[in-house]
Amino acid sequence: MTTTTEQKKTLDIHQIKQYLPHRYPLLLVDRVLDWESGKTISAIKNVTVNEEFFNGHFPHKPVMPGVLMIEAMAQTAAILSFLTMDIKPDENSVVYFVGIDNARFKRPVEPGDQLRMDVEIVRVSRGIWKYKAVGSVDGKVAVEADLMCTIRSANDASQPAGQ
């Protein structure tokens, strides 16, 4: 009897840096756990007390800012887009937010947590990618949002999206 197990597609931090231009302190994806081209991606951000933002948010009760949780999910979405297109961006590629809808924050993310980001492509139309993103800690939803992004050449970045 032969059993086949589907091999997970993972990316380590060195591979992630090939898909994202972000670097410390704004690189917010530590590992891709699995992905399926054109469909979904799961990734993690290990949240440590050494994060620069904890110095001011908040010294007495460190909590990861919601905007950074959204950014971490957007970075995960960008990786999925590049993997789906089967390209690695060059120094001229820029991924921009076009919109954030239905953002909800359900629980705080604190030092020691591992934020798991699950992102699904909802649709791609006229250069706009729409995703459903959920961030969770220990299986409990911490943040969710509908994200929209576009990939542009840095030379065209001053033009409005969809032009």
TrEMBL record:
**HAMAP family per the record?**
FabZ (MF_00406)
InterPro entries, per database record: FabA_FabZ (IPR013114), FabZ (IPR010084), HotDog_dom_sf (IPR029069)
Taxonomy, superkingdom: Bacteria
What is this enzyme's EC?
Answer: 4.2.1.59
Among Pfam families, the record links this protein to: FabA (PF07977)
Tell me the protein family, please: Belongs to the thioester dehydratase family. FabZ subfamily.
Q: What class of enzyme is it?
A: lyase
Does the record's keyword annotation contain Cytoplasm? yes
Reaction catalysed by this enzyme: a (3R)-hydroxyacyl-[ACP] = a (2E)-enoyl-[ACP] + H2O
Active site per UniProt: H57
Family annotation (SUPFAM superfamilies): Thioesterase/thiol ester dehydrase-isomerase
Annotated GO molecular function terms are: (3R)-hydroxyacyl-[acyl-carrier-protein] dehydratase activity
Q: What is this protein called?
A: 3-hydroxyacyl-[acyl-carrier-protein] dehydratase FabZ
Function statement: Involved in unsaturated fatty acids biosynthesis. Catalyzes the dehydration of short chain beta-hydroxyacyl-ACPs and long chain saturated and unsaturated beta-hydroxyacyl-ACPs.
Q: Where in the cell is it found?
A: Cytoplasm
Please provide the record's keywords in A-Z order. Answer: Cytoplasm, Lipid A biosynthesis, Lipid biosynthesis, Lipid metabolism, Lyase
